[in-house]
Amino acid sequence: MDYDREFLTGTVGVLILSFLIERPMYGYEMLQEAERRSARAFHLKEGTLYPALRQMERSGLVRATWRESDTGRPRKYYSLTPKGRRRAESKRRQWTAISIAMQAILGSHD
Amino acid sequence: MTEHDRVVAFVEDVLARARVPTRREREDLRRELLTHFDDATRARGSIDAAFAEFGLADEVASRFRIVYRVQRLLAHTLRIAAGLVGSLAVAVAIELAASRPGAFRGMAGLASGIVVILVLWRELVGRRLRRPTATARAACWLAGFLTLAAWEYGIHHYAGIPIGVLRAAATGGGFVAVAASTVIIMAGADRAFSALVQSHEV
């Protein structure tokens, strides 16, 4: 199914926060995780991820460090700051509520 | 052109269009994007597929420009202020050395004009993808010197004020000193600003 990529762009921040609440990740790892978990249905323009990460870094939601990955290659790993963790939990609650509400609305037309 | 060259050219294009304000951030972003394309090329199977998934350079750069807009504005202000102060100081020094009372006002105006043009050129046109060679840089400075010396000679003759070739050349040299000090000050301001705004460890 083709999604409206502009619609998905608005969810990039939530995606990043959701992934990083689990563990630190590097940019491409997040893109792969998004594809894997959505069975390749959720597919971002990859170039939208990095400006979003920079914005969140500047806002103090994430911090970044360069270190070696499991393969031995250096990667820029992002992790949540305490402020980012609070934001992630808040966003998760909001999206769960919105999702339930949208499901109720859309479901009522079936 | 090898695949690596294509990636490097694309990343440099994004960086130039994004106008990331500090050198350290540019280096960090360059490294991260090169790593991304390394991963994406392996995962997608081809460099063309990696480019297609990434998006257009201009679209991505415009998102980066939004991220850095406040920092860029501050950097512009700092560079312009430093450039103006530096150029005026040099203009005063030249005026004192030449001991020409009353001539400072015009010189300061032209010196400020040179500074503003240099700063706007740097900020609006953006940074060059490749550094010019030493010969090209020398040629630029020589052309600037000749233009300014000719301008001084011509404007004085037009106004009916006698000025010799040597004196016009000396004044042109003074303006080149102003331009050189501006470039040096802007580079210094860039480094100082980089150190100022980088509070996190990368």
Summary tags:
heterodimer, A: 110 residues, B: 202 residues, mainly alpha, 0% strand
The major pleated sheet of chain A works out as:
3 strands, antiparallel
Radius of gyration of chain B: 22 Å
- Reading the helices and strands of chain A in chain order gives HHEHHEEH
Work out the number of β strands of chain B.
0
CA(first)-CA(last) distance of chain B: 32 Å
> Order of helices and strands of chain B, N to C?
HHHHHHHH
Count the DSSP helices of chain A.
Answer: 5
Give the CA-based shape of chain A: globular
**Which regions of chain A have little confidence, pLDDT < 50, spanning 5+ residues?**
none
Low-confidence stretches of chain B: none
Given the helix and strand composition of chain A, which structural class is it? Answer: alpha+beta
Report the helical percentage of chain B: over 70%
Q: Give the oligomeric state.
A: heterodimer
Task: Determine the mean pLDDT of chain A.
Answer: 86
| Strand fraction of chain A | 5-15%
How many distinct beta strands of chain A? Answer: 3
Strand content of chain B: under 5%
